[in-house]
Amino acid sequence: MPITLTPCFCGSKQSFSSCCEPLINRQTQAPTAQALMRSRYSAYVLGRSEYILQTWAPDTRPPDMDLPHEQVKWLGLEIHSCKDGLASHRQGEVEFTATSISAGYLCTMRENSRFIRSEQSWYYLDGRCEITRKKLDRNSPCPCHSGKKFKRCCGVR
What pLDDT score does 138 carry? Predict the structure, then answer.
């Protein structure tokens, strides 16, 4: 199945082609801080560091970034809360949890991200995050919900 027809990585229940793809391909602007945050998560899933940097506020943007795309399997995004961040606002906050598997660990990143809007575009400013890592047992069910054991699914090297 082409990537554009798959459900969006951000968990919106829309197709990728109607949700985050137009934002990542710069065909349209994120209308809200939450939409930008969701598209940035999808960009992390796809290893699209150029989009992540383009949507980072210039004052806090790193000079470059190297995403460990092949070493991380992203499992999902959960939005906990949003404060402001609509088209009529100049700033917004989105609290979320992103879950991944990396090097045999289940990694959970909970972040409260701040966003700013400048000239009709939303940008990621910064965030406070907490990351937890839990070693995965090879015989436990895989956290990707495949129904397989971890060693037969995401634990395969």
Answer: 87
5: helix, strand or coil = helix
Which amino acid, residue 122?
W
Nearest Cα neighbor of 133 from 99, 83, 82, 97 is 99
Asked if 23 and 107 count as a contact pair (C-beta separation under 8 A), the reply is: no
Residue 56's alpha-carbon distances to 60, 115, 120, 129, in angstroms, are 7, 9, 14, 16
- Considering the entire predicted model, what is its pTM? 0.91
Separation of alpha carbons 46 and 9, rounded Å: 9
Can you tell me whether residue 34 is helix, strand or coil?
A: helix
Beta strand 72-84 pairing with 105-118 = unpaired
Name the token pair of 94: 């989105």
Q: How far lies 1's CA from each of 34, 77, 154, in Å?
A: 27, 22, 20
User: What pLDDT shows up at residue 35?
Assistant: 98
Task: With CA atoms as reference, report the closest residue to 37 among 97, 120, 104.
Answer: 97
List, for residues 124-138, the tens digit of each pLDDT value: 999 999 999 999 988
Alpha helix segments (H runs only) across the chain: 21-24, 33-46, 49-54
